[in-house]
Amino acid sequence: MSTGFKSLKDHVYDYIAQLIIEGRLVAEEKINENEICSELNISRTPVREALIQLAAEDVLENRARKGFVVKKMAAKDVADLYEIIGALDGLAAKKSVPFLTEKDFRDMAFYIETMNLAIKTTNYEMYNEQQTLFHKIYMNRCENVALVECIEKYKKKLLKKPYPDDSAEAMVSVLTETNKEHQKILELLQAGDADGVCTYLSDVHWRRSNAEFDMI
């Protein structure tokens, strides 16, 4: 069982990932290792370790004579990842059905309501946090650690700024529809429809979601 302890390398990893998510590091931009060392007041070793891990996860690319840069993903690459994650996420939900509790269902309903509030107040950071908690409930119940780790590995490849500032109306529309799908997922899980929730996640929830926003 994880103790929750984070190494210095893990903290650097999270710091760089957050820079990418917030759009402060963009595709094809070189990572300034000295700047990170200075910002975090640490030595180069944990920074290099974090960069190597991010490169191994295909978030960064290590280029000769240039160093680490944020990897640019083609639309086809993103679509392919969505297809894989959808299939794996559907399997996790299917396997979780016998183990979900009434408290799990109440918690999922709470997260759906909180996401609705986040949409109304355009608090996209809160939305992202709540949707992560929503999906984690059934993933944590699927009793297949390797499956969950595989899902998380593929999701890490999608690191990027998820909330464009110039498309507020489109953002609200996408999030509203996505949260309706969260409600449907909850209903299928409550009904014990293992095959139904598996199919819905793989063929509807992940497939319909707009990969440009990466917000499900």
Characterization of this structure:
The mean pLDDT is 88. This protein has 9 helices and 2 strands, in the order H-H-H-E-E-H-H-H-H-H-H. The protein is elongated and about 55 Å long. It has a two-stranded antiparallel sheet with strand order 1-2. A hairpin with a 3-residue loop joins strand 1 and strand 2. With 216 residues, it is mostly helical. The two termini are 27 Å apart.
Number of strands: 2
Listing every helix as H and every strand as E from the N terminus to the C terminus, the arrangement reads: HHHEEHHHHHH
Structural class from helices and strands? mainly alpha
Shape: elongated
The biggest sheet amounts to: 2 strands, antiparallel
Estimated share of beta-strand residues: under 5%
Overall mean pLDDT: 88
Rounded to an integer in angstroms, the radius of gyration calculated over CA atoms is 18 Å
Give the N-to-C terminal Cα separation: 27 Å
- Amount of helix: 55-70%
- DSSP helix count? 9
Low-confidence stretches: none
Strand order in space, largest sheet:
1-2
